[in-house]
Design brief:
334 residues, alpha+beta, 56% helix
Length: 334
C-alpha cells in the first residue's frame, strides 16, 4: 500500500497529497477523524481533515530534515483504544510521506507570500514615485514653461522684467534638480555607485559624525572594514547601507554613547555589526521605526537580524545577509 501511495503522491499537487494522506490513513485504520496540521512559526493549525472531529486526538509529529513541520492528528476508534505495533509502523512510514508533502506546501505558501510582498512593495514604490513626480515636479515644470513663454514675449520690449523672470526660472530649475536628486537618492544612494559599499559607509559615518559633534562632542564613530568587498548585488548593497544608516543614526540620537563601531565582514555571509557603549535598550521598550526597518530589510533577503545588550554594556546590532541570494536578488532590483 505504501509503495502505491508514494507513486500516487508523486503525481498530484502537494495540497492534494495532504488530502490523500488523511483519507488513506482514516480508511486503512478505520479512524473516525484524521487531520494534518501545519506549523507556522509557533502556531500549529489543521489545514486538511477527514471524518468527524472528536474531543480526543493523538498527535503524531511530522518532521522533515530534523525540523518539526506539523502534526498528524489521529482520533482513536474508541475511547481508550490504542494502535498496535504494526499500525504504528504504518503510521511512521506514512508520516515521512506526509512530512515531505507538508514541507512542500509550506515552501509554496512562503513563495506565494514573498511574491505578494514583492508585488505590493513594487506597486507602493511606483505610487510614491508617481506622487513625487505629479505633485512635486509636475507643477514646478508647468510654472517654468509658463514663465519661459512670458520671457519670450517680454525680452525685447521689457528687458528688466524678462531678466527678473529669468532669475526666478533659475531658482525654480534648482528646485527641480533638487527634487530629482531626492527621487534618485530614494531609489539608490548615488554614493554606492561612486564609492562602493565600504566607501559609502565611511563617507556617511564621517559626515554624520561631524554633523553630530555639537551635541555629542565626545562621540567617536569608527568603521572597521576591508578596503574592498567581493561583488554584492544591488539589493544586498542597498540593504546593508540603509541598515548602517539607521543603526548609527539611532546611536547618535538615543544612545548617549562615547563610542560607536561599525564593522563589515564577508565570510559565508555579509556580516554587519554596529556596537555602541551607550545606555543600551530598555527590556520592556518597543522597537521603533528604525529598528523595525532594519529587521525588515534583513529578513526580506533571507538574513538574520539580532539586537542585544553587550556583556560590557551598550548595544550590539548584527545583521547577517546571505551571499547565496545575491545573484538572484539582483535580477529583482529595478
Amino acid at each position: 500500500m505504501l509503495k502505491q501511495l508514494s507513486k500516487r503522491l508523486e503525481a498530484v499537487k502537494p495540497d492534494e497529497a495532504l488530502r490523500i494522506v488523511v483519507e488513506t490513513t482514516a480508511g486503512a485504520l478505520k479512524l473516525p477523524f484524521v487531520a494534518i496540521a501545519i506549523k507556522d512559526d509557533d502556531i500549529i493549525s489543521p489545514v486538511v481533515t477527514t471524518g468527524t472531529p472528536t474531543t480526543q486526538t493523538i498527535p503524531m509529529p511530522l518532521t522533515y530534515q530534523m525540523e518539526a513541520v506539523g502534526e498528524l492528528l489521529l482520533a482513536p476508534r474508541a475511547r481508550g483504544d490504542t494502535f498496535t505495533a504494526d499500525e504504528w509502523d504504518f503510521l511512521h512510514a506514512l508520516g515521512s510521506q506526509a512530512a515531505l508533502a507538508v514541507h512542500t506546501v509550506r515552501l509554496m505558501t512562503e513563495l506565494q507570500h514573498s511574491r505578494q510582498h514583492l508585488v505590493t512593495t513594487r506597486e507602493e514604490e511606483r505610487l510614491r514615485l508617481r506622487r513625487d513626480l505629479h505633485d512635486g515636479l509636475g507643477p514646478l515644470l508647468s510654472t517654468i514653461m509658463h514663465k519661459v513663454g512670458l520671457v519670450r514675449a517680454l525680452y525685447r520690449c521689457q528687458p528688466e522684467t524678462a531678466d527678473a523672470l529669468l532669475s526666478q526660472l533659475e531658482y525654480e530649475i534648482e528646485l527641480v534638480m533638487g527634487d530629482l536628486k531626492g527621487i534618485v537618492y530614494n531609489l539608490r544612494p548615488p554614493e554606492l555607485d561612486e564609492l562602493g559599499l565600504v566607501g559609502a559607509v565611511r563617507a556617511f559615518v564621517a559626515r554624520l559624525g561631524n554633523e553630530a559633534q555639537t551635541d555629542h562632542a565626545v562621540l567617536q564613530v569608527t568603521v572597521k572594514a576591508p578596503d574592498q568587498l567581493p561583488w554584492l548585488s544591488a539589493a544586498v548593497e542597498v540593504a546593508a547601507y540603509r541598515i548602517v544608516q539607521e543603526a548609527v543614526t539611532n546611536v547618535i540620537r538615543h544612545a548617549q554613547a562615547h563610542s560607536c563601531r561599525v564593522s563589515l565582514l564577508v565570510e559565508e555571509a555579509l556580516e554587519i555589526e554596529v556596537y555602541d557603549d551607550g545606555n543600551g535598550f530598555a527590556q520592556n521598550a518597543q522597537a521603533g521605526v528604525g529598528l523595525t526597518s532594519m529587521r525588515v530589510r534583513t529578513e526580506e533577503l533571507g538574513g538574520v537580524f539580532v539586537i542585544a545588550k553587550d556583556r560590557l554594556g551598550g548595544l550590539r546590532i548584527t545583521a547577517r545577509l546571505p551571499l547565496a541570494l545575491s545573484a538572484r536578488e539582483s535580477t529583482n532590483v529595478q
